[in-house]
Amino acid sequence: xAGVLSKAKAAKNASLKLATVSNETRSAALLKIASEIxxxxxxxxxxxxxxxxxxxxxxxxxxxxxxxxxxxKLNEDKIKDISEMVKSVxxxxxxxxxxxxxxxxxxxxxxxxxTCPIGLIGAVFEARPDVLPQIxxxxxxxxxxxxxxxxxxxxxxxRAFYSIIKDASERSGIPRGWIQxxxxxxxxxxxxxxxxxxxxxxxxxxxxxxxYIQTNTRIPVLGHAEGICHVYVDERGDLKKAxxxxxxxxxxxxxxxxxxxxxxxxxxxxxxxxxxxxxxYKAASVEIRGDAxxxxxxxxxxxxxxKDWRTEYLDLIISIKVVDSLQEAIDHINSYGSKHTDAxxxxxxxxxxxxxxxxxxxxxxxxxxxxxxDGYRYGLGAEVGISTGKIHARGPVGLEGLTTTKxxxxxxxxxxSTYVGKRAKPFTHRPLAKGRKILE
Length: 440
Description:
α3 runs antiparallel to α7 (155-171) and α10 (239-251) crosses α11. With 440 residues, this protein is of the alpha/beta class. The chain folds into two domains: 2-222 and 385-402, Aldehyde Dehydrogenase, Chain A, domain 1, CATH 3.40.605; 229-372, 3-Layer(aba) Sandwich (Aldehyde Dehydrogenase, Chain A, domain 2). The chain has 15 helices and 17 strands. It is globular. The two termini are 46 Å apart. The chain has helices at residues 2-18, 23-39, 41-60, 66-72, 76-90, 131-141, 155-171, 185-192, 207-215, 239-251, 267-283, 292-297, 306-309, 326-336, 349-358, and strands at 99-106, 109-117, 120-124, 145-149, 179-182, 200-203, 229-233, 260-266, 287-290, 302-303, 317-323, 341-345, 363-366, 385-387, 395-397, 403-410, 430-431.
């Protein structure tokens, strides 16, 4: 307990100092981190090789999947991409100190709503080496301190990235202790108890893991439990687009939360689309599970069960259902989906608008693969994760999701008694110039 608590206290104290550090200094630190990641790529690859050696032993014993093994692997291209990601975060606009609301309550009495850091972020995430630099970069740019706990399978890679980020940032003027690393599973339970120090938890991992975090802490949790994503091919969908989108959403990278798990196809186009799509899926070793109508078209497929509609496969498996209408597709998604990402393929503008309006998900798409649901692809620089909740932040969570707000009132001796009672002075509530700064 003492070790985790001392790290949390150090990070929390550093967060108060970090909130005063200029955007120029934070951005310069990020550029230094990006440079160091490239310069020390041999070290990163050497440490990642240690993780891979252990993971390959687990793979041979059937303890982890090949998809898990691939997510763990670093190479020179991935390291370059990580460095570029950090640079892109550095170049984003400062999310701190933005005036969202400015009103004159009375002459000489003004109120401002401004953005500020959340404080100390606790990030617990899966065994993917690129996650630690992503979260760290976003926290630094948004002036938040962070305590990190990654998957044990990526222990050596995480240590190497942590060392680079800590050294480069502290040499660039970032308060010492702003970033902390936990390594033991038992430390997660201790972290969950530190509501007096940790302001927000961002878990990334399995459905069961995230639900465990949510039910075992009083610290606010930002995240999503699972990604049961859908593509619906409408009766007026372009079948060439449908073929490419349905293939990409499932096959391009099946082991991630924004990959499609269920394909819904309108009965008017099912006979024309499914045989061609199944041929491509079969070539990519995708296992198809279909409802009764699908199996009439593709009789060799496995039958889909009720459980399949609620399953996040994260693998080359897909469930397919033929539906009679757009409304049936929407109802299916809202009943079985996880509010993550869902897409429609259609040339009918009214159908597209109905889908966008009625599907209750954090990302909804028209004629595009669900794989676009990503902070980097959305132009957020990177993301700490995906949120499917409706409070604070929703969808890919980038810089804005790591900020909160405070109200600042500027007066000149004003007291409330002036504005109450029979002779109460009225408020003016006059909007001030958009973007006006405090004490400007």
